[in-house]
Amino acid sequence: xGIAAENIKKExxxxxxxxxxxxxxxxxxxxxxxxxxxxCTYCGLVLDTNLIDTSxxxxxFNVEEFDKKARVGAPSTFTIHDKGLSTMIDWRDRDALGHKxxxxxxxxxxxxxxxxIRMRVHSSMxxxxxxxMSELERLSSxxxxxxxxxxxxxxxxRKVIEKNLIRGRSIEAMVAASIYLACRMSGIPNTLxxxxxxxxxxxxxxxxxxxxxxxxxxIRLASPTPCHFVARIGNELNxxxxxxxxxxxxxxxxxxxxxxxGKDPSGMAAASIYIAALHTGEHKTQREIARIANITEVTxxxxxxxxxxxxxxxxxxNIEC
Length: 321
Description:
It contains 13 helices and 3 strands, in the order αβββαααααααααααα. It has helices at residues 3-14, 63-69, 103-120, 124-143, 147-162, 171-186, 192-198, 203-217, 227-236, 241-257, 265-280, 286-293, 297-311, and strands at 29-32, 37-40, 46-48.
């Protein structure tokens, strides 16, 4: 069923009158997109005709053809300083038919383009947002965050500007702290060390800006648990789902004994993954796991020994460095 049929079905759902067939009482209704008819599949009664199709009057069979035929712009987004609602004058110096402009028209278009760019960032807040959103896109692309995380981080940064928290602080630090806060709110397991290594800001300053945003915006966050880091570390190590499930069970058992309290969650997750990999035969060295988890081998070894001793696990293989 195509787009037209989907629109017809939406109209049917919005209409409280068309629920069951008045002839047989059956509720299995089919919309014919080509004729605009609504038909009962049991008795064949035509319930409605000539329904209006609100979809596009053209068809597209690939992304390039869809973009070429579409007559609307990009959706509104918080990751652009003006939310993508302003206009833009093209640099190709051609008219609507594709013909080149005359020298006089080109000079006029150049002046209009120059003033249009100036008007887009005419205030200090617009200039701040323009620089901050470009930094947000760079850091998010470098760390591989999805569009939803970028939108959340951009919304948080706009709230930070409204609170006037940028004055006297680095824009890059506040942007990185906003992205880190968006990751924490979405349950994405990333540490401050990873943000510090991918940005030009130190870990201490990032933590200071992060705590400032939490306090001023009155946001409450739950502490990250080691289970949040298992999937990310396991996927980067190409471990099976069985090993990751065993690692989560080990962490749940360690939590009952209280040995996860006060420990680095990434270190506990790395040690549990190491034990699970030994159990399933997917041997990974402590050096590999420590590199992926962004911790030291000593941390993996210490957490490993604590878990094995507390849970009384029997590991046949020796510790591999």
